[in-house]
Amino acid sequence: MPAVVIANNGDVPEFEGRITFNVILCAVIAACGGLMFGYDIGVSGLYLIMDLNLLHFLYIAMINSADAIKFMQTSGGVTAMDDFLKKFFYQVWERKQQAHENNYCKYDNKKLQLFTSSLYIAALIASFLASKTCSKFGRKPTMQLASLFFIGGVALTTFAVNIEMLIIGRLLLGCGVGFANQAVPLFLSELAPAKIRGALNISFQLFITIGILIANIVNYAVGKIHPYGFRISLGIAGVPALLLCFGSLAIYETPTSLIERKKVEQGRAVLKKIRGVDNVDLEYDSIVHACEVASQITQPYHELMKRESRPPLVIAIVMQVFQQFTGINAIMFYAPVLFQTVGFGSDAALLSSVVTGLVNVLSTIVSVVLVDRVGRRALLLEACVQMLITQCIIGGVLMKDLKTTGTLPNGDALVVVIMVCVFVAGFAWSWGPLGWLIPSETFPLETRTAGFSFAVSSNMLFTFVIAQAFLSMLCNLRAGIFFFFAAWIVVMGLFALFLLPETKGVPVDEMVDRVWKQHWFWKRFFNDEQVVEKGAIEMIHPHLT
């Protein structure tokens, strides 16, 4: 492959290198961490469709309560499971036949919501522990540890015989998600040449979407395999974990991590291998300088509280909050429920999940192609307009035509399905991948792992909040829930327009001088003598500076 110069507009130093096979291989294997996460998101939707799994673990706890009838409504696919219910749980089957539930409230079940979202509490806590392992042992061992957590969690959930085993398995899966989401984006940002950093980093999100799609296809294929179809879906989650576990043996640690841990010569050697050239002096010196600065910081979390650390920290946390308040996880977790609510049968709901999963994958590929060409902000701003329009249309149609009982007319149901797909497309080429990319590339080395742990934990916290609250919000707000998320999208658009700097093409160790100190708003967080003359990169708001 021909050599390229890793360079940017202005005075950013040129780092020579090729886009090598080693870089691509490392990126693909590391991105299997995203495949693990995505498959789990897709399988989470399984619990809302496959009666059998939910009945198996929750029947004893709920059979004597009114929740049993409501619970049956959450699982969907009831007709396909009637033989099983008649044979093993006849009383439940009779109660189900008599149940009449509000379209907006029939899925409101606290135990179901807690079961789905418990993984994210474990991931939130694990992300802080992963920050320590990333710094002390490296990005690669942290990814390997994530895969081991995931393998253990898959084993417990697949072979669970009671709800306790299932919950413990979910907690282990959460630890795997927390460790992977902490290590993989950092690994990709530090490994990639600046010219293609956005595309390689988004491979993490791309693999998440592929994992969701695969899970949806598997769910659809095994949905009628009685009585253990759900175990097949859960067990397949071990495949990406094994790929990451064994594949990581064949990849390099990042030069930054090696040099940071005093393995200087090994770091230079790896840098030469991944860049494909011998002349890596400029990039090597830049990394060494960043590591020397970072080595003076013994309390990175304390450093994050300082004034000059606030810009990247605020951006990192806000990006995670906004990513969740687009409403995307609500739609992806409960897409089968949404399609059933507007009148599709259980099989159609699963098939529709496959369709939205495919849209998700293809749209993320669009982001891979465009992010290093048009920049981060352009994708975010366009998507805000797209998602705002679709949320309002979905909310308007449901508010107008979907009553508390019954279904939508066929034409309106089709509009909802199309708008959901358009919404997913907008998210998948913007706030989805960039919510991980931007925080992973904006922190200086001395606070990078600590800062990114705040980003990951914020993501998990607000994923938990949305997953835990969505069904209750749907019950209380009804169609208004889509206008709730639409209002947040307006706030997101204004934030991206005025406060989010462009980071396209800037080396990760040059962000402070060439992004934060040049931004019209964020430069005020640095001392006057720290602010350099503008011109190193294209200014984000020339009319405001």
Low-confidence stretches: 1-12, 46-96, 103-109, 530-545
Shape: globular
CATH class of the largest domain: Mainly Alpha
- What order do the strands of the largest sheet run in, or round the barrel if closed? 1-2
Supply Rg: 24 Å
* Count of beta strands: 2
How much of the sequence is in beta strands? under 5%
Tell me the span between the first and last alpha carbons: 41 Å
Q: For the report, how would you describe the main beta sheet?
A: 2 strands, antiparallel
| Rounded average pLDDT | 77
- Supply the CATH superfamily name of the largest domain: MFS general substrate transporter like domains
| CATH overall fold name of the largest domain | Growth Hormone, Chain: A
- Number of helix segments? 26
Order of helices and strands: EEHHHHHHHHHHHHHHHHHHHHHHHHHH
Family: Belongs to the major facilitator superfamily. Sugar transporter (TC 2.A.1.1) family.
Membrane topology: Multi-pass membrane protein
Transmembrane segments: 19-39, 112-130, 142-161, 167-188, 200-222, 228-252, 313-337, 349-371, 413-438, 450-471, 477-500
Domain Major facilitator superfamily (MFS) profile: 26-504
